[in-house]
């Protein structure tokens, strides 16, 4: 299986959860540093040749990718009127086009095997919106369209495609926010706290398990109730 953005945060927790149940796990990131026991690869999703090289190495060492968790993503926040063309295109190129490259390449092996699980990591922001994140929200909402189209394209070959939409999660990114901002975010969440990365990872592991074999095209929130009704 392959987890992108697997060196820290949610991606690392996902990789560790699969490793803990004995799976062969490959992780990609821009800087390296995946969890112990994983095949640790550097890969820039904006470079098609790098994506191809990563899959070639994974297939050589682990065989075809049966589970793809497309987790890698970036933010570049600013209000719409200040957002540059580069800020827009940079986030879309990594988060949306990078995911397109991953699912296209992974699906080749899955179609031959007539089985596979694809999990795309979106965000509650895709459904609720967020000021200063027009680029990020658009990229994460686009993943839902990819997943539902793939569900229809690949479903007859026993390949499921689902979306996990986390809310605020305890990561390096949220830890860097001012305390008053963190408190304001927590006040919006019915459960009154941020998620741990392990709580998101648990949902991903379930989607890849036999118990979720009939779940496809779903958007599963892990957001403490923040996005209810969306």
From TrEMBL:
Family recorded in the similarity comment: Belongs to the short-chain dehydrogenases/reductases (SDR) family.
Pfam entry (one): adh_short_C2
Organism: Nocardioides lentus
Annotated PANTHER family: 3-OXOACYL-[ACYL-CARRIER-PROTEIN] REDUCTASE FABG, SHORT-CHAIN DEHYDROGENASES/REDUCTASES FAMILY MEMBER
Residues covered by the Ketoreductase domain: 2-172
Coiled coil start-end: none
Protein's UniProt name: Beta-ketoacyl-ACP reductase
Lineage summary: Bacteria, Bacillati, Actinomycetota, Actinomycetes, Propionibacteriales
InterPro entries assigned: KR_dom, NAD(P)-bd_dom_sf, SDR_fam
């Amino acid at each position: 299986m392959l987890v992108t953005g697997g060196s820290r945060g949610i991606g690392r927790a996902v990789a560790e959860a699969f490793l803990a149940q004995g799976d062969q796990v490959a992780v990609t990131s821009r800087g390296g540093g995946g969890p112990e026991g994983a095949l640790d690869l550097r890969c820039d999703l904006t470079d098609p040749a790098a994506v191809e090289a990563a899959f070639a190495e994974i297939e050589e060492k682990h065989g075809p990718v049966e589970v793809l968790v497309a987790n890698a993503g970036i933010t570049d926040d600013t209000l719409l009127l200040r957002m540059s063309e580069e800020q827009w295109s940079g986030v879309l190129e990594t988060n949306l086009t990078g995911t397109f490259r991953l699912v296209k390449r992974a699906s080749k092996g899955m179609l031959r095997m007539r089985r596979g699980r694809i999990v795309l990591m979106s965000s509650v922001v895709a459904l609720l919106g967020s000021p200063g994140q027009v680029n990020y929200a658009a990229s994460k909402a686009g993943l839902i369209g990819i997943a539902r189209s793939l569900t229809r394209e690949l479903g007859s070959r026993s390949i499921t495609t689902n979306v996990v939409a986390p809310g605020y999660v305890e990561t390096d990114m949220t830890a860097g926010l001012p305390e008053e901002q963190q408190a304001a975010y927590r006040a919006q969440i019915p459960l009154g706290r941020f998620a741990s990365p392990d709580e998101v990872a648990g949902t991903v592991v379930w989607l890849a398990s036999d118990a979720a074999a009939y779940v496809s095209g779903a958007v599963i929130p892990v957001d403490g109730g923040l996005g209810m009704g969306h």
